[in-house]
Every structure is written in C-alpha cells, then in structure tokens.
C-alpha cells in the first residue's frame, strides 16, 4: 500500500523523519523566538489569534509546503499531494486538538473564579452578568473550533487511510506485454 500511496516510501519516510527533526531543531533553536507574545496568559479562543500561534501555523505550513514541493519535484507521484499534504493535515489537526483542549482548560479557571465571586456574598467585586456571558461566549467559540476540527479530521482520516487507488495491473506497455508480468 505504501508504494502505491507514497513516492519511494523507504526514502520518503526517512527524509520525513530527518526533515521533521531539522525543522523542530530550527523551531526550538531560533524560529519560536522570532515572534513573542505581548500579552502573557492568553485565555480562551484568543489563543488561536495570538501572534505566536499564527507564527507557528505559518511555519508549519511553510515547512510542509517545502517538503511536499521537493517530493513532487524529486519523485512525481499521482497521489503525492494527497498523501503528503493529507498526512500533514492529520498531524496538524492532532496538534490543533491539543491547543483547543488547552484553550478550554485555561478558560475554566477564570470562569469558575467569576462564578465563585458571584456566589460569595463577601467578595469585594461582584461580577456582572455581562462578565459571565463574555466568558461563556469565549467557551462557545473554543467549542466551535473543536467541532470544526472533529469534522475535518473525521472526514480526512478515513479517506486517507482507505483511499481506493487505481490498480496498475493489466496495463500494457504499448507492445502488448503486461507491465506486471509474473508478479502478484
């Protein structure tokens, strides 16, 4: 299956591993420090629109584009775009799922602090209903991103794993002989 789906699988997977190690070393050694967050402790959905988060998304997309571009030039394959970009999409959606979980978990603290302050009659600053609704809407926005990721991943993973590839059996070389003669 790997031969029909990935271009030159042995070399491809070793190069993918080396490329991942190289890009991760460059990210942690240099690139992650290019864009610093001006607001520490971002809570909720704002985490996805922060400069460091957008910088990582761009860096990931650029690294995948370079890797896919090289393999499409080096070993053209009819399913290269689907296999390389599709595999990268699975990795990115897994990363994105973790980030959505972090956003949801970081929302719990301030929200329950606000609820506790509202229930406590001795709290100096009783929160308004507007503050409670603002925090609840932040949770809803993060939940929508989680649902979108589930839909995208739920569609892409089965299609990538069980894609029916056209069979090359029975094709001829132009001289009447089969290209897969004697092989099963």
Structure in words:
With 184 residues, the chain is mostly helical. It has a domain at 43-161. It is built from 5 helices and no strands. It has helices at residues 2-5, 9-29, 51-74, 80-119, 129-161. Helix 2 runs antiparallel to helix 3, helix 3 runs antiparallel to helix 4 and helix 4 (80-119) packs antiparallel against helix 5 (129-161). The longest helix is centred in the middle third of the chain and has 40 residues, at 80-119. It is elongated and about 70 Å long. Mean pLDDT is 76; it is low at 164-184.
The mean pLDDT is 76
- The count of β-strands is 0
The H-and-E topology, N to C, reads as HHHHH
Q: What share of the residues does DSSP label as strand, in percent?
A: under 5%
What radius of gyration results from the CA coordinates?
A: 24 Å
Q: How would a crystallographer describe the biggest sheet?
A: none
Shape: elongated
What is the SS-derived class?
mainly alpha
The number of helical runs is 5
Helix content: 55-70%
Alpha-carbon distance between the termini? 13 Å
Which consecutive residue ranges, at least 5 long each, have pLDDT under 50? 164-184
Q: Topology, pairings included?
A:
Elements: H1 2-5, H2 9-29, H3 51-74, H4 80-119, H5 129-161
Helix pairs in contact: 2-3, 3-4, 4-5
């Amino acid at each position: 299956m790997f031969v029909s789906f990935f271009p030159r699988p042995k070399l491809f997977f070793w190069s993918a591993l080396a490329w991942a190690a190289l890009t991760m070393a460059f990210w942690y050694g240099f690139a992650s420090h290019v864009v610093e967050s001006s607001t520490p402790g971002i809570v909720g959905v704002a985490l996805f629109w922060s400069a460091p988060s957008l910088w990582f998304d761009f860096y990931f997309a650029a690294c995948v584009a370079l890797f896919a571009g090289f393999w499409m030039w080096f070993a053209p394959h009819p399913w290269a775009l689907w296999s390389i970009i599709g595999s990268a999409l699975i990795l990115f959606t897994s990363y994105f799922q973790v980030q959505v979980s972090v956003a949801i978990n970081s929302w719990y603290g301030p929200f329950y602090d606000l609820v506790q302050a509202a229930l406590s009659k001795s709290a100096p600053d009783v929160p308004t209903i507007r503050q409670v609704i603002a925090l609840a809407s932040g949770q809803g926005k993060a939940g929508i991103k989680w649902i979108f990721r589930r839909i995208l991943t739920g569609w892409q993973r089965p299609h990538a794993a069980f894609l029916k590839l056209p069979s090359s059996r029975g094709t001829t070389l132009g001289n009447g002989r089969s290209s897969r003669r004697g092989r099963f």
